[in-house]
Amino acid sequence: GMQQYAATWTGDTGGDASTMIGIFNYCMACHTNVSCDLEVTSPDKLHYGFLLPYAQFLCWAQWQYPWFLDKNKEDMIRSYSKLRSSLFPYIYTMAHKASKTGLPILRPLPLVYEDTDRFDDVRNMYMFGDNLLVGVFDMHLDLPDGVWIDYFTGKEYSGVVDYEIPEGRGGALFVRKGSVIF
Predict the structure, then answer these.
(1) For position 3, what pLDDT does the model report?
(2) What pTM was computed for the model?
(3) What is the pLDDT of residues 150-159, one digit of tens each?
(4) Are 53 and 35 in contact (CB under 8 A)?
(5) How far apart are CA 89 and CA 17, in angstroms?
(6) Residues 3/31, Cβ–Cβ less than 8 Å
(7) Suppose 119 and one of 14, 109, 177, 179 were both cysteines; which one would form an S-S bond, judging by CB atoms 3.0 to 4.6 Å apart?
(8) pLDDT tens-digit profile of 128-137?
């Protein structure tokens, strides 16, 4: 019955790694519009919050509005806001696909790679639509087969990597090589 709701959020739990299980559970039940509070207290939480099917700013915490924060955090929020805005055509395309197929926008790796148990316990990566792979919180990443291009640097990766987060970012964002995003 959850699909009757337009969107679901994990509650006042904050935007940290503890919300991943709730988000993944919603998505495994094919609920596409899921989110958690977009925390601005650290780059990794900001990265995660902006790369969910919908971004919900932690509005009750008005002292965390961007203009009250230090310049670096404000700039990072601005950068991630622009990134998310640039992804709108992709996100909307994946939302349309979700409405037709039931396959959610955010896809836990066991949902995408069901023929292997390799990703059964992965809680630090997920597919964001068909062609984006997001790494959050723990940057020791066992990438799915194939070549993945770092969205931020253009560097190519495959296999198991210890990803070094670029300056001004809070996690990994990869594009499947050969895909057309824009």
Answers:
(1) 58
(2) 0.90
(3) 999 999 999 9
(4) yes
(5) 27
(6) yes
(7) 109
(8) 999 999 999 9
